[in-house]
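worker-03 picked up job from queue 'complexes'. Input manifest follows; two sequence lines, order preserved.
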Amino acid sequence: MFGWCGKILKIDLSEKRYNTFIPDPDILIRFIGGRGLAGYFLKEHITLNWDAPDMPILFFAGPLANTPSPFSGFTNVMSRSPLTGTVGDCSVGGNFGTQIKKAGFDGIIITGKSDTLCGIEIHNSKANIVQVPHMSGMQISETGHLLKDKGSTAVIGPAAETGVLFSNIIFDNNIAGGRNGLGLVFAAKNLKYITVEGTKKTKVSDSNELERSKEDIYRLICASPVLSGNFGISKFGTAAFYDLINGRRMMPTDNFRYSYFEHAQLLNAPSLKKLYRPKEDGCPGCSIMCKRVTQKGISMPEFETLSHFSALIGNTDIKTVISANSFCNETGMDAISAASTIACFSEIHEIKLTSSEILGMLADIADKKGEGELLGQGAARYAKIKGFPDAAMTVKGQELPSYDPRGAYGMALSYATSTRGGCHLSAYPVSYEILRKPVSTDRFIFEGKARIIKNSEDLNAAIDSLAVCRYIFFAASMEEYARVFHAVTGISLSAHELIKAGERIYYNERIMNAANGFSAKDDDLPSRFFNSYGYKGSDIQIRPINRKSFLKARANYYKARGLDKSGMPVAEIIKKLEL
Amino acid sequence: MENQFLKYEKKLIKSGLAEDGDPLLGILDAKIKWNKKDKAGKVFESIFESLNINSLIFSKPKEPYFSIINYLAKNSDGIIRPCDCETRTFFHDLPVSDKFNTDAIISRLKKRKCVIIPDYGIIATGMVSIEQAFITYSSVCFSCFVKFFSDYLYAIKYNKPDKRFIQIFEKVLNFVSPPLSFNHCLLQGPFNSSTDVLNALTEAGKLMVDLKLVDSFFGNISYCYNDTLFISQTGSSLDELEGCIDLCPLDGSSCAGITASSEFPAHLDIFKKTGHKAILHGHPKFSVILSMDCEVTNCSNKGLCHITCPCKRNVCGIPVVSGEVGSGTCGLCNTVPEAIIDKPGVIVYGHGIFTSGIKDFNEPFMNLLKIENDCYKEYLNRVYTKLHSKR
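worker-03 finished. Artifact:
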């Protein structure tokens, strides 16, 4: 078999045993890998509670991982989200996906619950469950230090162990598998970490063809201003988006009460560069190097963290942003959700927090101390308990990231329809509404956006299933990756056939959410976006979204997606997509 | 959607890419909408059903494109492989379907953004907007034009073109515009306000398209004012630059120019090396064609001319340099700025022209026009000189 290993590792922590199984090759082709295969194997368990021992947590690499395919070592981690109750997943870079393949697997499925805190160590087809009670409460870097010779790592920090609903799994010490609280699924299983390494090779069908297809992709990367330009992410990291988003007047400010941050220039990417002289960092073999670390190797904030720990909470101190980001990484908390929950607190209590109060509040959340215990439940639950549900800027209970939906209507629609709650990555309309790739679309209209969002969700589901870096698609398209897929697997699927698989994968997630009661009532935005301006300037107006137009676009989306009027899956499409 | 239909139908016609009434445009949101009824409507509806697209353009190209594309398609093995930079970078190759048949069309569109059907026309698709389909359609016309005239010149030089090729060449030449002239003056610099700069950029960009020097999406433009480079955004249309200019401070204090043209590094370096404030870049066809016409026959670098060239070449006295789009070690930003010093312009192999001016766009515009006119005349000169010498 080319590309895939054709073998999946299944570990039961209750029984302290593992086995492997061979998936039907047809399943591999129809669900590709990564997010697709994880969703396929999650589906039958999705109505279990997230903390039920039988609820699996799944890690899947893609068929291109561990081959010379460019930017292809991603991993998708999936389970039911403790934060939202929806399908919870995250596609992460790093070395984990490649090492899963090197160990001889396409994916790892973990069920059960250990009676004491444990770790899983995988080496070349063999798994070892080790008891690690001494690691309880240990921070990410300390745990990482103890595991440094054991390959690639997926670790939780103290936030997950104390029950923070937006706790992350941290891969390779500094890459967050975030947004859905999947760290808590680890904690529910009494699982502190997984390490994986191996020496196996993945067979490639046509190496020469793969080399030629790589040339096309690298040529497009050089032609991409977002990736390779003077202001692109290869030069500044993702903080490069900070000026642009603020310039477009869609930077969430003061808990989304405004969409422009007048102090942005103090905290933008050039300021960070000047102050910290950060070093480039990124996934193994990557030429973009989108991450930045300080001279001491501490992760610098990504755009979303930079924006939320500054504009969203009214903070103008860059050092506070760096410290908050570092604290979230060390304790394993999702920085977007943490900042958004603090912003919600500030609004409810009408308090502007000082730097030390921000950092103190983060510590209280991680320690489950004082108000931190409630804040650790996320903005939606906190605001509801306090009697101010409208102060939570969430969709399906997940805190919104750093793009005000009033400034990009495709983003508004995709926040609402995303299967994992308020998320910018499901359809990633920033690409065409703001970054002009593959072409620019009018960001202030809903017309045409239903189909565009559906198409983009399918495309991104396919990308996450190939387990390739999303950023590359600012430059390349599925046309180029279809060629890579063919060169690696020997299977001839066109770009559109791969995207069709993405449609199947996305619809599968809608089916899982529907099984847990999610419907049109959940595909909605906070009322603030329909009632108030984000920015009133002579140049740009960020107006409230017209509710009627939004609902019409959502209805159109349901038609384009093949859902009924309530947003529920229909038998005809389930059959058509062979689900 | 009606506005979108009107806009792109008008653009197709104004650019000379289609005849009035020919283009069929479709956009799918919850349901498909068309700009007009078409007897082959069912074929196109099947395309929408089968592919992950939201827009489509189908049209018979206007002459000379129709004859050119037909000729290339009928003489292809099912794929046309132009060698210009646009195709190499963004399209790879252009598939042909010899039948107007749903399955045949869909199978090709599953792999590429367009399909050519001889005697019928071009189908181009977009995944996020009809603008994508328009750019693809326009690029097919451009690439095929460049390939046709390049192939003909090659055939004249190295093996006698067949009778059919000669007939088509003589026919299409009648549709090719004669050398262009422009006797007016553009806004005069140096400019004293951002508004003046934006007006000058918009005027020069629009003029390039209006004179049919280039199609809308084939170029970029910049002006340096007040320590800020004003530059057209990536993927912007030269004839619609209002609201599509990025302001990039030269002190590096902002990343707001992340959406600036992919040629920003070349523009910046031209300004730094020459002090010229006004820079134009476009892809006029005959400059592109002649840039690829090389006299060296047994070159060890064959097939890599777009990346590097061991010779110092020029066309009509204008340097020809290698270089790929954007940045990177093979990027044209490494070759153009040096080559343009003390020259009226530079031609990038298989790509297009850069020109620059000290204070406004009059000089770079007239230089770009002259280079293209000279290349057109030189092309005909090379064709007919060789033809006569063979006779």
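worker-03 released lock.
The first strand of chain B starts at residue 24 and ends at 28.
The mean pLDDT of chain B is 94.
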